[in-house]
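Morning. Coffee machine broken again, so started the prediction first thing and wrote up yesterday's gels while waiting. Chain of 218 residues, entered below exactly as on the submission form.
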Amino acid sequence: MIKILEKFGCTVHYNTEQTCCGQPAFNAGFWDESKAVCTKFFNDFKDAEFIVAPSASCVGFVRNYYGKIFDNSSVHNEIKALGAKTFEFTEFLLRVLNVKDTGATLNATATYHDSCAALRECHIKQGPRLLLEYVKGLKLTEMADNETCCGFGGTFAVKFPEISIGMGEQKVENAIATGAQYIISTDLSCLMHQQGYINGKGYGIKTMHIADVLASGW
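Came back before lunch.
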């Protein structure tokens, strides 16, 4: 991701002291603990011009839930500003940098997985597909039920492993049915979950984050 951003003129600062956005604790019901982590995130990134993440899950949480966590606090307005300048990687390329063609090449057939966070929290659907259309040699085929959850869901996979694995199975089998060599997505958590199922079955299909695809062949 940094490689691509720098190619298109961005000066990228990576804070090595950064930690989590706070979502896991929040989703598990530990709101006070989550707020402490969110406060660190706010302090780490409040002075940045833009915040770009290779994860729609994190971006969706900052945009949609930080306002609730810091409601009626002294930093409420600053939190709103933080959410407004936080972008998922592909939408930053398209909306801020106006980049469609990254100059990537990947001679393969792939299918795209809509992560729940990208689709439902950030309303991202066509953008990643548009970027993938410009990747030379890449053929994109749509899988059945492409808007269905893969079953990871953060702590959901821990609390309900059997259901989670069953959902992952459905997603991977649908991807394989397209003849794709790769499953591409904006969220590594989804890809990690699906790759775990793939490894367990010994399948040949592989998962690939869209940032890796858009930097391929340079």
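The longest helix spans residues 161-177. Going to sketch it on the whiteboard this afternoon.
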